């Protein structure tokens, strides 16, 4: 039975209205074809290229352009974009607020990005805040949080959390990645703060649909910090205890709320840490064969447990 | 003849259920209506969610690779021949297990049978290669590559038609793309051969399509055609790989004149880099194939991005900015044009969001936004400007104005 046949059958039986039949048939036959996400993608790619181009132009033509030209252009760009958002934006609400148009979210994002670029440029050139230069990041993060909530924008909320993470000391550095103890502590602090903020706002009923973004940030930071702590300090450490507690809480939350993405995070991070500990223990005393045996047995146990969980919760695809 | 382990009815029912779930998510049908559809389209197959599928896949993969490792370790073999033979035996075993799971437990995209199938593909190809390597004499590098690509291409195509794994068909296309480069032909022939091969497959795929084809098959064909189309585009764009390489290495692209091809071939390829996306877009819009429209759109953007490299023009730092503004303007023009049509649509095309996609935590744009602060910081990490010796009359000559 094809889609159209089924729809017609349901309509004949009276379980599908004529209006629904018309709409669904038109969608299925592609008589109504939405280009919504394609056009959003095009705008987003355009915004990213504009930001990239602005950054590269500043970097390359710094001496020719001069400080005033760069700062005033970036400031005007950011002000124009944010001004447009305040002019066209819907009133603030605790719930979901639909964007006034398809490009609105990206204009706000562009404004925030140009503002960041402007602030970063001012600080790197003039060192106004000296040693406490990272105060800019905190101020920017606060502004982005406000804008994200004011205009109900998930992109800007991600930007705000990314900026806050940068204030905590986490930046993109492809040259080499090291995770020292203080990184771990900062990552845990950031994770807990994000978690607390997300859960508090959710409980207060303010933009409850943002919770997923907070949880994603918080859980990755917490898990990575704890797993790296287990790598560094082994079984007899608070990191391991923390990982066990966090894993248990996350699994229980994921199963209760049927959000299996978090279940996936907890299982994978937990397995990585546990495997590291077991291999670390087995390696000096036992042969390589035991390590293979560990992986066979542990993965079979994991599959068995997942099958049981899956059946118990009758999770749908 | 149906080679697939699942019947077309089962796959069509799963397709309808997924479609119905999207309609329900988008508020087009009620919960009750969804349940009615679900009852009527029972596939009798065991499905699982994406996250459980990933977990099953990961743990099955770990278990199987460890099992192979353990056997090789226990047998204490370190020669290519015996290892190759072991790989082959395991490959057969894993493949039989994958088929058994589907037949006995009726699993559908469960992760376990996928891991078994893919590992059997890897072990089969690896096993044959190791066996060939163990033969006396050193086989030619191109011959080895040809053998590997052919095996991967054939085995993954078999996995596609037998199990319906769409990604296996994509692996098959990629492997096919390596074949023409293994005959030590002149570059111009290599490209032409690949172009002909992919065009032939694309045309066959179009020819075998009809209105009576099941919906799930139409969708699959659409995706495969889009991949073949991208393959065709990448074959004709002679600059894209050099530009991509320089982008990732953070160096200026080192461009050989005419990319090492005869000028006539080079300029024909330049025309094709615009003609192919334009044709793809036109055809995609005509027959309303989303995957093809998206692929053609990406190809067109790539053509614009490599245009200067093709023409040998100088790059400027503001190029991405101009390009970005062009993309935004193009999007705005399309949006406005569509919105001004009757019922906010033209020829059925609309900007309105009709079907809501499923959300899995963070989306790709949100991840991009999250890493933006790090990127911005890197972009502005430049040394402070040193004062010009001609400023403020320091040069001793000018000095009439602040800036010389």
Which helices and strands, and how do they pair?
The complex is a heterodimer of chains A (about 325) and B (about 400).
Chain A: H1 3-13, H2 18-28, E1 33-34, H3 36-60, H4 62-65, H5 67-88, H6 104-126, H7 135-151, H8 154-167, H9 181-203, H10 211-233, H11 238-257, H12 260-285, H13 288-313
Helix pairs in contact in A: 1-2, 3-6, 5-6, 6-7, 7-8, 9-10, 10-11, 10-12, 11-12, 12-13
Chain B: H1 8-25, H2 31-40, H3 50-75, H4 80-105, H5 112-134, H6 141-163, H7 166-178, H8 187-207, H9 215-236, H10 240-249, H11 263-287, H12 290-305, H13 307-311, H14 319-339, E1 345-346, E2 349-350, H15 364-379
Antiparallel strand pairs in B: 1-2
Structural description of this entry:
The complex is a heterodimer of chains A (317) and B (404). Chain A is mostly helical and 317 residues long. Chain A is 77% helix and 1% strand. Chain A is built from 13 helices and one strand, in the order H-H-E-H-H-H-H-H-H-H-H-H-H-H. Chain B is mainly α and 404 residues long. Helix content of chain B is 68%, strand content 1%. Chain B contains 15 helices and two strands. Chain B has helices at 8-25, 31-40, 50-75, 80-105, 112-134, 141-163, 166-178, 187-207, 215-236, 240-249, 263-287, 290-305, 307-311, 319-339, 364-379, and strands at 345-346, 349-350. In chain B, strands 1-2 form a two-stranded antiparallel ribbon. In chain B, strand 1 (345-346) and strand 2 (349-350) form a beta hairpin. In chain B, helix 7 runs parallel beside helix 9 (215-236), helix 8 (187-207) runs antiparallel to helix 9 (215-236) and helix 9 runs antiparallel to helix 11 (263-287). Chains A and B meet through helix 1, helix 2, strand 1, helix 3 and helix 6 of A and helix 1, helix 2, helix 3, helix 12 and helix 14 of B. Strand 1 of chain A pairs parallel with strand 2 (349-350) of chain B, so a sheet runs across the interface.
């Amino acid at each position: 039975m094809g889609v159209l046949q089924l729809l017609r059958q349901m309509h004949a039986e009276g379980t599908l209205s004529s209006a629904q039949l018309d709409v669904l048939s038109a969608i299925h036959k592609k008589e109504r074809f939405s280009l919504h996400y394609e056009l959003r993608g095009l705008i987003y790619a355009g915004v990213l290229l504009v930001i990239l181009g602005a950054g590269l132009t500043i970097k390359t033509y710094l001496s020719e352009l001069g400080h005033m030209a760069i700062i005033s252009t970036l400031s005007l760009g950011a002000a124009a974009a944010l001004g447009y958002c305040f002019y066209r934006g819907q009133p603030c609400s605790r719930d979901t607020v639909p964007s006034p148009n398809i490009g609105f979210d990206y204009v706000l994002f562009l404004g925030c990005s140009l503002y960041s670029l402007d602030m970063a440029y001012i600080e790197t050139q003039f060192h106004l805040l000296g040693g406490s230069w990272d105060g800019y990041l905190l101020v920017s993060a606060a502004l982005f949080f406000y804008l994200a909530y004011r205009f109900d924008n998930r992109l800007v909320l991600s930007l705000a959390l990314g900026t806050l993470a940068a204030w905590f000391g986490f930046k993109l550095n492809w040259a080499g990645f090291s995770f020292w103890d203080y990184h771990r502590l900062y990552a845990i602090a950031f994770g807990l703060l994000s978690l607390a903020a997300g859960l508090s706002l959710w409980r207060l009923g303010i933009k409850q649909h943002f919770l997923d973004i907070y949880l994603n940030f918080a859980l990755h930071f917490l898990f990575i910090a704890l797993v790296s702590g287990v790598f560094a300090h082994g079984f007899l450490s608070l990191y391991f205890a923390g990982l066990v507690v966090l894993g248990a809480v996350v699994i229980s939350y994921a199963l209760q709320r049927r959000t299996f993405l978090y279940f996936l995070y907890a299982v994978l991070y937990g397995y990585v840490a546990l495997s590291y500990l077991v291999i670390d223990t087995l390696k000096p005393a036992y042969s390589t064969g035991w390590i293979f045996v560990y992986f066979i047995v542990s993965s079979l146990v994991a599959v068995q447990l997942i099958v049981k969980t899956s059946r118990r919760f009758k999770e749908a695809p | 003849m149906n080679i697939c382990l699942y019947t077309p009815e089962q796959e069509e029912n799963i397709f309808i259920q997924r479609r119905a779930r999207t309609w329900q998510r988008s508020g087009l049908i009620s919960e009750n209506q969804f349940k009615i559809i679900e009852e009527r389209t029972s596939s009798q197959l065991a499905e699982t969610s994406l996250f459980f599928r990933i977990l099953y896949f990961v743990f099955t993969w770990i278990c199987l690779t460890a099992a192979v490792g353990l056997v090789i370790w226990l047998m204490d073999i370190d020669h290519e021949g015996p290892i190759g033979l072991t790989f082959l035996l395991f490959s057969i075993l894993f493949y039989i297990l994958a088929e058994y799971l589907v037949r006995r437990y009726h699993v559908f995209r469960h992760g376990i049978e996928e891991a078994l199938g893919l590992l059997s593909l890897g072990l089969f190809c690896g096993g044959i290669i190791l066996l060939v390597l163990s033969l006396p004499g050193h086989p030619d590098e191109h011959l080895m590559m040809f053998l590997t690509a052919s095996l991967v291409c054939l085995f993954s195509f078999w996995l596609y038609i037998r199990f319906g794994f769409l990604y296996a068909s994509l692996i098959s296309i990629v492997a096919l793309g390596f074949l023409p480069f293994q005959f030590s032909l002149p570059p111009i022939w290599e490209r032409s051969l690949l172009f002909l091969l992919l065009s032939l497959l694309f045309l066959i795929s179009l020819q075998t399509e009809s209105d009576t084809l099941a919906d799930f098959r139409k969708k699959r064909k659409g995706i495969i055609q889009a991949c073949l189309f991208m393959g065709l585009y990448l074959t004709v764009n002679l600059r894209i790989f050099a530009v991509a390489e320089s982008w990732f290495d953070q160096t200026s692209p080192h461009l050989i004149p005419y990319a090492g091809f005869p000028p006539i071939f080079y300029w024909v390829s330049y025309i094709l880099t615009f003609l192919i996306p334009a044709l793809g877009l036109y055809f995609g819009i005509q027959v309303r194939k989303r995957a093809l429209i998206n692929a053609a759109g990406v190809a067109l953007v790539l053509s614009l991005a490599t245009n200067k490299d093709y023409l040998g023009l100088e790059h400027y730092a503001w190029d991405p900015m101009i390009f970005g503004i062009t993309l935004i303007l193009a999007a705005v023009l399309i949006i406005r044009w569509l919105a001004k049509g009757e019922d906010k649509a033209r020829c059925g095309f609309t900007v309105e969001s009709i079907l809501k996609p499923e959300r899995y935590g963070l989306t790709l744009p949100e991840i991009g936004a999250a890493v933006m602060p790090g990127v911005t910081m890197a972009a502005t990490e430049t040394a402070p400007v040193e004062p010009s010796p001609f400023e403020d009359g320091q040069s001793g000559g000018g000095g009439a104005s602040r800036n010389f």
